[in-house]
Amino acid sequence: MPKEKRKPGRPKKKSNAGRPTVITENTLFKLEEAFAIGATDTEACFFADISTAALYSYQRENPEYINRKEALKDSLVLKARNTIAKDMPNPGTSKWYLERKRKDEFGQVHKVEATLSIEDAINAINEAE
Predict the structure, then answer these.
(1) The pLDDT of residue 11 is above 70
(2) 51-102 residue pLDDT tens
(3) Residue 16 above 70 pLDDT?
(4) Residue 117 — very low, low, confident or very high, per pLDDT cuts 50/70/90?
(5) pLDDT score for 1
(6) ∠ CA 61-59-18, rounded to 5°
(7) Counting Cβ atoms within 10 Å, is residue 55 exposed (0-12), middle (13-18) or buried (19+)?
(8) The whole model's pTM is what?
(9) In the chain, how long is the greatest CA-to-CA distance?
(10) Between the CA of residue 95 and those of 39, 60, 78, 87, what are the distances in Å?
């Protein structure tokens, strides 16, 4: 059978042959579920049963997905902040929050004093030998 001749100047048709993508709607759902609970790329790929290479390839083809992934990862931090904010009427939570956010003013100070004489140091060295 002779090959079909293309007319000059017409682009060659893209073949549909090749391996189908592993990133299906179900895979995206699983990835998003994992990212929403703070999973790393590796953990999310394991959960979705794909390779990290497949995820990164998908991100190259769909760069907007990178922003979506980061937003999902940040959503867990936002949920935690919201939980803390809702519990602020609790004095224990308020104290805990201030100790971490305003350390200079509310942080716990642990003062340690130690005195050591040269004689004590020499004696300790001699005893060790």
Answers:
(1) no
(2) 999 999 999 999 999 999 999 999 988 999 999 999 999 899 888 888 888 8
(3) no
(4) confident
(5) 55
(6) 50
(7) buried
(8) 0.60
(9) 103
(10) 30, 45, 20, 11
Q: Which of 64, 41, 62 is nearest to 53 (CA)?
A: 41
Distance CA 115, CA 118 (A): 10
Does some domain include residue 59? yes
Number of domains in the chain: 1
1, part of any domain: no
CB 60 within 8 A of CB 52: no
Half-sphere exposure of 116 (CA within 13 A, CB side): 9
Domain holding 80, by residue range, is 25-128
Residues 6 or more apart in contact with residue 100 via CB below 8 angstroms: 107
* Rounded distance between C-alpha atoms, residue 45 and residue 119, angstroms: 62
SS3 101: helix
Residue 19 counted as domain residue: no
Neighbours of 48 (CB within 10 A): 24
80: in domain: yes
